[in-house]
Amino acid sequence: MNNNPIGVLDSGVGGLSVLRELRAQLPDESLYYYGDGLNCPYGPKPAGEVIGYVDEGVRLLVGQNAKMVVVACNSGTAAAIGYLRAKYPFPIVGMEPAVKPAVLATRTGVVGVLATANTLRGELFRATSAKYADRAKILMVEGKGFVELVEADRENTPEALETVRRVVEPLIEAGADRIVLGCTHYPFLRGAIEKVIGGRAGIGRAVEIVDPTPAVVHRVRSLLEEHDMAAETGHKPEYKFFTAAKEGEYLKMLRRKSGFFG
Predict the structure, then answer these.
(1) Sheet holding 137-142, edge to edge
(2) 73 carries an active-site annotation
(3) What is the CATH number of the domain that holds 110?
(4) Pick from 10, 15, 5: nearest CA to 61
(5) Of 99, 115, 183, 230, which residue is the catalytic one?
(6) Which residues are CB-contacts of 124 (< 8 A; sequence separation ≥ 6)?
(7) Is 118 helix (H, G, I), strand (E, B) or coil?
(8) Out of 4, 53, 183, 252, which residue is the most buried by the measure of CB atoms under 10 Å away?
(9) In this structure, is residue 1 part of a structural domain?
């Protein structure tokens, strides 16, 4: 048993979608969250630069006695997961677009993947996509403007709906019946994505959103059990938030969007 916290980090607020699921599925675990904020978004940045930002977040969480770290950022995972696992002795869990379940579930044979530029360029994503390319047509599209909308707390605006429409409608028109969310910011735009999908109901097929978060939480649970690191049953969890951004307002947004408080 180990009551130390699980550390979760992202370029900004997107990883809160993972944090919320961890809290729901692992209620005894303390969770410490690092949302960079200062250097977001990671998607367009060079891999070497992203490695530095992610490593800074991991070091902060290590300083808080984190027993495990979840890199709840697809771009951060694509750039830094190999580096981190070579450097640190504890379990590190990364994010990967859920291509496999989407390909196995598609009925049209077409899968759309929404992700950042770095994720789409990453070796892990390219290898996974190549593995299943003979089973379905995989359409890869950058969610341009998605991260910026969520970071600006504007995911429920007409602007967000129009931004999502421009990206998602072409995937549906191309035959995609599975839309994979390849960035942890994108679940915050799920409402807008569902509206666009609903507006295209006349195409005569069901279009479903595929979120990798449940698989990540399952992996965290497995590692906790494998390494005998789970918190004691009934342990009173603690939740803390950190950022590289100007702390006041950004920390308030992290806490509010986490849904943990008030």
Answers:
(1) 137-142, 110-115, 178-182, 208-210
(2) yes
(3) 3.40.50.1860
(4) 5
(5) 183
(6) 77, 78, 81, 94, 96
(7) helix
(8) 183
(9) no
* Residue written as token pair 């950004």: 250
Same domain (yes/no): 182, 222: no
Whole-angstrom distance, CA of residue 229 vs CA of residue 215 = 19
Catalytic: 40? no
In tens, the pLDDT along 195-240 reads: 999 865 544 468 999 999 999 999 999 999 999 999 999 999 999 9
Among the options 22, 73, 120, 217, which is catalytic? 73
Contact between 143 and 114 under an 8 Å Cβ cutoff? The reply is yes
Which residue range is the domain that position 148 belongs to?
A: 99-210
- Which tens digit of pLDDT belongs to each residue from 20-74? 999 999 999 999 999 999 999 998 999 999 999 999 999 999 999 999 999 999 9
CA-to-CA distance for 42 and 55, rounded, in angstroms? 13
SS3 262: coil
